[in-house]
Design goal:
5% of the residues lie in helices and 52% in strands. The protein is mainly β. The protein folds into 2 domains: 75 residues, no CATH class; 73 residues, RNA polymerase II/Efflux pump adaptor protein, barrel-sandwich hybrid domain (OB fold (Dihydrolipoamide Acetyltransferase, E2P)). It has a 9-stranded antiparallel beta sheet with strand order 4-3-2-1-9-8-7-6-5. Strands 14-13-11-17 form a 4-stranded antiparallel beta sheet, with no helix packed on it. Strands 10-18-16 form a 3-stranded antiparallel beta sheet, with no helix packed on it. A hairpin with a 2-residue loop joins strand 6 and strand 7. The longest helix has 8 residues.
């Protein structure tokens, strides 16, 4: 599953081998690829062409032409959605709010304390889960406001670990 943002409206898209659902509604379209960037769509008695004009891999934005109109789509894959759910989305201003536990586990080591400045990619703590050590890194830059956990503390999935 992934989400597509079009004109500030979020659409949940789920694609299987034989169908596409948008916001849990099956889409019944006939598609005919006319090239690697162009597709012909038929829905009922309506027919139109869609063309991908540009794709920015880094920002995950796609500019398309549908009929005579152009639109920009922002795509978020399952990993972007997971990071967002954990409070670790890298988009926006880059200002951190908090870091949440990606899974239940035990805090093995804390690498930061209140007042510390962290940069993107800095190790902030080590979480043991299923007998594996998981290094939790900062998804952006910020100053640690509060560490909400302590050493050897058990944490639940999505529990706030560090606030910025």
């Amino acid at each position: 599953m992934f989400s597509v943002i079009l004109q500030n409206t979020v659409q949940a898209v789920e694609k299987t081998t034989d169908s596409i659902a948008v916001n849990q509604k099956q889409i019944q379209w006939d598609l005919k690829w006319m090239g690697d960037r162009k597709v012909h769509l038929i829905k009922g008695a309506e027919s139109m062409e869609a063309e991908m004009l540009s794709f920015d891999k880094e920002s995950k934005t796609i500019q398309i032409r549908l009929g005579h109109k152009t639109a920009t789509l922002q795509v978020k894959d399952r990993f972007d959605l997971l990071l967002e759910k954990m409070g670790m989305n890298a988009g926006g201003s880059g200002a951190l709010k908090n870091i949440k536990a990606p899974m239940p586990g035990l805090i093995l080591d804390l690498k930061v304390k209140p007042g510390d400045e962290v940069k993107k990619g800095d190790v902030v703590l080590i979480l043991e889960a299923m007998k594996m050590e998981n290094i939790i890194k900062s998804p952006g830059e910020g100053v640690v406001k509060e560490v909400k956990v302590s050493l050897k503390q058990s944490v639940e999935k999505n529990q706030v670990l560090i606030q910025f």
